Sequence to fold (152 residues):
Amino acid sequence: MPMECPRCSVWNPDVARFCRNCGLGLVVGPEGILGAGRAPHANPLACPAGFEPIRQAADMFFHWEATGGGAPLLGTEPLALTVFNGGYDLAQVVLHVCGTDRAGQPLFEIEREIEEWRRGGQVRLEIASYELPDRVHALNVVLIAAEFGQPE
Ligand SMILES: [Zn+2]
Fold:
């Protein structure tokens, strides 16, 4: 079956591994060809030191710390979350930030949107202390939705 590129809408032969028009990797997942934010880039940028992968995403990473610069466990300080895009230019990105306590129990889940997120771009997302319960031990970031950015 021919495949329509989710980024540029050009049709490709079913044997194609990359879009013949825009070069998008045509990786097939459980729900068809992987779309924006989930299709791995053919030439991804390296993950910055100390960053972890964002879940259910390709080539996206995050790092977090208390804005005071101390250990990110104090609970009463805002958190600075930095996310890095090592893949394609993206837009309308929706991320869920989930915090857990020491026992791994979920404490909160916050949604954050990034209107435009270029390849190589680092975005800082602050989470205010009033949004945080005490004793945040670990943070996970999950990709919920994304669109491909406009070509330059
Ligand atoms: Zn394409």
Residues 5, 7-8, 10, 19, 21-22, 24 surround zinc ion (CB under 6 Å). The chain has a mean pLDDT of 87.
